[in-house]
Amino acid sequence: MPRWRIPNTECSDFERLAPLAHVYRATTRVTNEEASGMTETVLCDIDQHGVARVTLNRPQLHNAFDEALIARLTALIQALGDDDQVRVIIIAGNGESFCAGADLNWMRRIAEQDAQANLQDALRLAQLMKVIDSVPRPTIARIHGAVYGGGVGLAACCDIALADDGARFCLSEVRLGIVPAVIAPFVVRAIGGRAARRFFLTGTAFSAAEAQRHGLVHELVTNGGLDEAVDATAAQLLRGGPLALGRCKRLIAQVSDAQPDNDLMQRMAHEIAEARASAEGREGLDAFLAKRPPRWVDDVQ
Length: 301
Hints:
The protein is of the alpha/beta class.
């Protein structure tokens, strides 16, 4: 499988590239500060193993969200989730920061619109968070620098979050007279209600070590080893059955905060029965008994 980049690339598998190329054609609007250089606000590279590296690319604004970035990122993650050859999605930020939340100029423009337009804009950001949270591929957040507001939401929506130990986190919305409403379900799920009270209400910055202690970050990385740690985690994920990984994400969503009643246990029994009977499940069990790697691991070695 060739390495290819979206959208300025060529690919021998045109049918695979076409849906993602369409995504970029459909979301080519750029903001004023990008127009002079025609900068792409979201970049994507997919390697020969199916690892997609999605990079927010507004470094001059610390990768802050605006309407164009939200539209591009939402469409791209959806397209990657629909591509069977994509195995892992890494979300990163170009420049000094992972993501500094909302572009304040964009927020000012939205605040001046009528209530319906304001609501629709908030729903588009909510859709982005939901798409990242539920995409049927494992996601890794590669976190460094400033992680503010919606950037914290991005980290919370990813399945695994790895951070440079110098990263700084902040949920400062109350200091602007607003609230972190759209990201709240994901952030509170990650850090719990008690920690959310502190960080939501005070708006104070907190360290990567605190983010790890409260469950927002899984692993801290020192001495410039972030890329190595991300690559190692992606390699671990590639050892899992591609369909099984998606099933696990769906299973976790179904059982989180659910009582183990008869209805839930019936659904879980159906899940494991379907997984065992699937071609992927049979291959995994056969490979284990034969003391050989399953085919999906052979594909990436």
